[in-house]
Amino acid sequence: MHIHFIGICGTAMGNVALMMRAMGHTVTGSDQNIYPPMSDLLADAGVAIMNGFAAGNLDPSPDLVVIGNRMSRGNAEVEAALDARLRYTSLPELLKHELIQGRRSIVLTGTHGKTTTSSLMAWLLECTGRSPSFMIGGVPGNFTAGWQYSTASDLVVLEGDEYDTAFFDKRSKFVHYLPTALVINNIEFDHADIFSSLDDILLSFRRLVNIVPGNGLIVANGDDENVRAAVRQAFTPVETFGLGERCVWRACNIEYDAETSSFDVERNGEVQARLTVALLGEFNVRNALGVAVIARWLGVGYDVIDEAYRSFRNTRRRLELKGEWNGVRVYDDFAHHPTAIRETLRALRLRHPDNRLWGVFEPRSNTTRRNIFQRELAECFFDADMVLLAQVDRLEELPPEERLDPERLKHDLEERGITTLFLKDADHIVEHLARHVEPGDVIAVMSNGGFGGIHGKLQTALEG
Length: 464
Fold this sequence. Notes:
Elements: E1 2-6, H1 11-22, E2 26-31, H2 38-44, E3 48-51, E4 64-67, H3 76-83, E5 88-89, H4 91-100, E6 104-109, H5 114-127, E7 133-135, E8 147-148, E9 155-160, E10 164-166, E11 169-172, E12 179-184, H6 198-209, E13 217-221, H7 225-231, E14 238-242, E15 249-256, E16 261-267, E17 270-277, H8 282-297, H9 302-310, E18 320-325, E19 328-333, H10 338-351, E20 357-361, H11 374-377, E21 386-389, H12 406-415, E22 419-422, H13 426-436, E23 442-446, H14 454-463
Parallel strand pairs: 1-2, 1-4, 2-3, 4-5, 6-9, 6-12, 7-9, 12-13, 13-14, 14-15, 19-23, 20-21, 20-23, 21-22
Antiparallel strand pairs: 7-8, 10-11, 15-16, 16-17, 18-19
Helix pairs in contact: 1-2, 5-8, 5-9, 6-7, 13-14
């Protein structure tokens, strides 16, 4: 089958295109911004890429057109596909028909931690020799890409994203993933550009819960009130996990060292095993416990789980050490929500308890650019000694009354005793850091984007 991808160079689109190529399909695609590394990966796999969107890119007519969720009406290729009555679909629906149907799908979801838990689940199954197919929204440290297609296993691991599917399908992506087993890490308000309230998000999760078969399994964070609400009327067996006494599965006697977290696994009050995972923080202990519950349901022994956890390397941009220059460690993290920021800084404080910790934050996501979390952001930096705030990204796209106010956030943080500066961009932040950091300091850069190339600029400045 000839499959054409409109918007092929996005991370998810490109990875699925590569998977379809590996499955034997003829794949072409187009995009306005064609750049490495995705363009090189696609070219090396024999995928023809057209620069720009044009009706002629659909000549000869493909058997199927995949329309990315960044595309909308008015796009030249979208209009041409509709005019010609070509068969078209979304990326999640393509995965449903070409990869998931007929397999056992393990979907890991939640507002936070889904990339880490998906990567951990895929690696654990790889360590059992089951070699699952997977699609993850990042590059897992134990693999060379965010996808794998395997004919050796009927298991497929999917990161379940609650974001919408396409301009013609406003349901969350994860409802297409046909979960046999489902992990829900947590549920909070996010994605303010597509959800109007927490109730809207809960509705999407309830729809997901409602399609898990009766002979499947739902593994739900029992410490999270919103998760408990989402699974309350499930037709599928539910196993709760967490730290609290109401959970069926509990992580107890938690201990941390510089690089790992260790904990006892209890089920209904009885200790089952002790596990050590190469991740830090209470948040990641809970993530590891949720994955372990699925693994046990699949019949994986605790010795194998522990071995996989000890050898796990997290996804890039999740507490990733970018480098140490003149005694200053610089970490990169995708944190762009108050809870994620809090947990990132807490984990770094555990790793570096006696070092001065700088929190550098760019309000860039569609939620943190808005003032929805104005108050919550002032309450998530407590583990930082110094905070540097950048200007709100794409400020001109938001009316003034909707924007996050960094000056107010600075004032609120200083009232809590945290030294804070508001510096408008990466260049000014790097200049300030270069003048004030000392050997032994730790810098946590938190953004869900490129942040003006801040990591390379920091390396240059600190090495100089």
